[in-house]
Amino acid sequence: MFKNLMKGAALVAILACSPASANEFADGLNALAKNQIKAFAQSADVVAAIKAQNAETAGYDEAEILKLDNKWRAEADADSQPMIDGVLARPASEALAKIREDSDGLYTEIFVMDAKGLNVAQSDPTSDYWQGDEAKWQKTYQVGPDAIHLSEVEEDESTQTFQSQVSMSITDPADGSVIGAITVGVNVELLP
Fold this sequence. Notes:
Elements: H1 2-17, H2 26-41, H3 44-57, H4 62-76, H5 82-88, H6 91-102, E1 107-113, E2 119-122, H7 135-138, E3 148-150, E4 154-156, E5 161-171, E6 178-187
Antiparallel strand pairs: 1-2, 1-6, 3-5, 4-5, 5-6
């Protein structure tokens, strides 16, 4: 326990002395993205789920997207959550939840987005349905294949861990085109 406290104190000191945009763990996070995360992001189940949702949401305009996002946000605080439960019950969501559970705390959350930035699958409920207005989607999906975006390291108050969100584009293995994106919360204290 003392070792963990010292490690946490060292992380606080690093973060306090770093420029706001720096991520001291970038090398480890990029390596994780290019290997482990890419492997499950490009799995057949995830790719199929994105492609199916892209076919469904291709014609959605901003008004429809905002309507869905507002519905999701309202459900996030409600007892009844049919929209959220529907996404969590998808096989791809169940697979992501298993990956998170099997990571021994390395991954704190995993979610996949479609070509509009809408949630396709997730290990845990997100606070909103539309990620298309955020850097995690804009700096991956809109950039192209092999794009990786790292968020700043922040303390997650609910888990008392320091984490960074690693986001990357997901491509269609058939032609290499970008079809969606993935975001993975990574506990930087557990980086290999």
